[in-house]
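Bug report (template v2)

What were you trying to do?
Predict the complex of my protein with S-adenosylmethionine.

What happened?
Run completed; filing so the output is reviewed.

Input:
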Amino acid sequence: MSYAVKEIFLTLQGEGGQIGRTAVFCRFTGCNLWSGKEEDRHQAVCQFCDTDFVGMDGEGGGRFTDAAALANAIETTWGTRDAQQRFVVFTGGEPLLQLDSELVHLLKQKGFYIAVETNGTLPVPDAVDWICVSPKAGAELVQTCGDELKLIYPQEGLNPQDFIGLKFTTFRLQPKDDAHKQEHLQKAIEFCQNHPIWHLSLQTHKLIGIP
Ligand SMILES: C[S@@+](CC[C@H](N)C(=O)[O-])C[C@H]1O[C@@H](n2cnc3c(N)ncnc32)[C@H](O)[C@@H]1O
Ligand SMILES: Nc1nc2[nH]cc(C(=O)O)c2c(=O)[nH]1
Ligand code: SF4
Ligand SMILES: [Mg+2]
């Protein structure tokens, strides 16, 4: 199978349980909850997306004709850094529209620890090491277990407490970044303090000005 990739870049994981760790980010093109076009945002299932996942024109992006070609590009982006620490984060868009076990296994063979950021509407392939699910109001949740559930807060019609029975190791609340982000941050802090099972998750890459 071929893969449409928006961008591949080296950065630090800015969010969640792997925060601060040097990572290759592979951002797939396309999402099942929004076309990515601004004119469609108001009618999308997911309306607060902070990401450009349209096209294949980003740094290191393009059409990869097979899993080996994409795995090699990820390995090249990691470069000569300590091979013991190899870490890749698949995101998007929605990575599970394209990430398959062939690609996962090739990267495991290269020694990568593999993380995925998903909206939870599609199942995660076996052998992924770190599953971060970020449910969206109005979208069916299919992937109901994983390492972290990272809920963007607030979302109309979603009560964080309704997720607590699911099989996730940690539960995080990430303030929605939009024109009202300061209010959302204050509400998220208050919610975490009153419901301590929830840990606050900040988008630290935005705070420090890295991609
Ligand atoms: C761009 S999404 C791509 C992965 C996948 N489609 C998903 O939604 O989880 C990556 C992460 O950014 C989060 N995110 C997107 N827009 C955001 C915003 N405006 N404020 C805070 N987090 C946001 C998502 O919930 C997800 O955890
Ligand atoms: N540094 C950095 N960390 C991230 N963690 C999740 C991200 C994403 O867009 O999926 C992201 C991102 O875009 N940049
Ligand atoms: S599901 Fe993820 S990638 Fe898709 S629009 Fe929402 S935040 Fe963006
Ligand atoms: Mg991001």
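What did the reviewer find?
The chain has four helices and nine strands. The pocket of iron/sulfur cluster (ligand 3) is lined by residues 31, 33-34, 46, 49, 51, 53, 92-94, 119, 136 (CB under 6 Å).
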